[in-house]
Design goal:
Layout: H1 4-7, H2 10-33, H3 38-42, H4 53-72, H5 86-101, E1 115-118, E2 126-129, H6 130-155, H7 162-166
Amino acid sequence: MTDAIYASSVPVFRQMLGGLAAILAKAEAHAVQKQIEPAALIQARLFPDMFPLGRQVQIACDFARGVSARLAGAQVPKYDDSEQSFAELRGLIARSIDFIDGFSPAQFADAAQRPIVTRPGTPKERRFDGQSYLLSYGLPQFFFHVTTAYALLRHNGLEIGKRDYMGQY
């Protein structure tokens, strides 16, 4: 039987990142068709104090990789987050999916009880067990950034809907 923590994380991240990659491909085609500078969409924000689309995608990928790695007891990879184009953002998503696909369900056998510490040694340090980390912190953070990326593109005229957001399931 597949570990519940694995089943609630890696496949979910894979599905949603796949949907995000497909939405970004549609956004790039939309920019070409409507003669919109791609950077205008990649830098679009819902409000001035929010991150732009490109950063939303980077953070979603960071959470998919980081949450999966911590739950599997593996080293969290560090990426540059320097992507400037739709192709580079889709490449980041592909690398993130490849990374999380490298984990097996067996690596998550004790994940529910595994101690997780975020931002250790800082005033923002938080301690969780694996289950609380995934359900109360990791997944909500991940979905926030994927949803915000979707909303940014929808707000900027991309004709997408819930099926696009959901990805292949």
